[in-house]
Structure formats: structure tokens, C-alpha cells
Amino acid sequence: MYRVYGDSQSGNCYKIKLLMAHLAMAHEWIEVDILQGDTRTPDFLAKNPNGKIPVLELPSGQCLAESNAILNYLAQGTDYLPEERWLRANVLQWQFFEQYSHEPYIAVARFIAKYLGLPEERRQEFEGKKAGGYRALDVMETALANQAFFVGSTMTIADISLYAYTHVAHEGDFELTHYPAIQAWLQRIANHPQHVTMG
After folding, report:
1. 106 DSSP 8-state letter
2. With the CA atoms of 8, 9, 13 and 17 taken in that order, what torsion angle do they form, in degrees rounded to the nearest 10?
3. How far apart are CA 174 and CA 180, in angstroms?
4. Rounded distance, CA 2 to CA 13, Å?
5. Which domains does the chain have, with CATH numbers?
6. Cα dist. 126→34, 116, 119, 156, 168 in Å?
């Protein structure tokens, strides 16, 4: 059985939980508290020397880190990762966008507010995340204006990657009222019969 080491409130970890629910994959979830130093122990660092979650441990004992790499591994051979070359490249394009243009703003702002309680010494950094976060949301809104999902006509791991932190963007003080296409997309994902919520 797969083991997933993660924080149930982390968007990067939630990606894995959501895909595994969609694929009905049996797994053991092992809760990791990053604020208590759980990712800095010798045992954890042996699984991921970078000291970050999530980590997927295979039945073989092999460990895979980085949320989008894990999604690609688990989705191989399923409808969530197209085999056609152009579509697969587009999935990767959106996953790279999520890691470089979306997560560093929306997820970090949420972390500062939700996990750290918005301490005064990080307020300037928090406010500095707004412009980049809204730029990412603008790109997403444009992409979703005329299509239901980011790649092709059905949900892929591109959608799962971007859903994880977008659906809790308000916890980082991002307002989605002016993004109707994003709101409709969020609702489509939440309405999926295999959907599970964060936590």
C-alpha cells in the first residue's frame, strides 16, 4: 500500500489526497507537522533530503517528493494524464505555471496568514504577494473563459494542481468575486462524485 506523508491542511499535500480519491487508490496517510520540525528528523530526511512534504512512499520502499511529480507518477495510464504529446505537454505547462507563478504568491500568503497568524514582521511580505497572485488568477480566468478545464474536455492533474491552493485563496486574502470563470471551474471540481475536501 502507498504511504503519503503530509499535512492535511497543505495544498501541495491535498493535491495527492484529491487525485488518490478520484482514482480510488488505497493508501495510508501519515500526518506531518512542519511547525514542530517533523520534516527535519533523520527518519524523514532519509525519505526526502529536501525536508519537505508531501512524500509518497511506494510499497517497494522508494520515496518520491514534489507534489506535481507525485501527481504525474500516480496519474500515469489514467484519464488524468493524457497520452497525446501536445495535451501532456500542456498539463506540464500548467503544473510549471502553478509552481512558479501561482504557488509562490497565493500559497505563501495563505501560509503567512493561516499557519503563522500574520505576524507583523511578515505583513509587508504578505502584502507583497498580492500583485503576483492576482496576475496568476488573471491568467487562469482568461484560460477558463471558453473551456471547462485547463487541458482538454475533462479534468486532468493540471486542474488538481491549480485547484489545491485556488479554492482556499481567500485564506490568503485573495478575493475571487471578479473571477466568474474560476468560480465556475471550482464548482465543477467540487461537484465531482469522487471529490474530497481538504483536511
Report:
1. I
2. 50
3. 14
4. 14
5. 2-75 (3.40.30.10), 85-190 (1.20.1050.10)
6. 20, 11, 10, 31, 16
Q: Which three cell numbers stand for residue 41?
A: 528528523
pLDDT tens-digit series, residues 74-129: 999 999 999 999 999 999 999 999 999 999 999 999 999 999 999 999 999 999 99
Q: Half-sphere exposure (CA, 13 Å, Cβ side) for 137?
A: 26
Count other C-beta atoms under 10 Å from residue 81's C-beta.
Answer: 21
Q: What is the pLDDT of residue 199?
A: 84
- Stated pTM of the model: 0.96
DSSP string, 13-49: HHHHHHHHHHTT--EEEEE--GGGTGGGSHHHHHH-T
Model confidence pLDDT, tens digit, residues 52-82: 999 999 999 999 999 999 999 999 999 999 9
Q: Between vectors from CA 28 to CA 12 and to CA 94, what angle results, nearest 5°?
A: 25
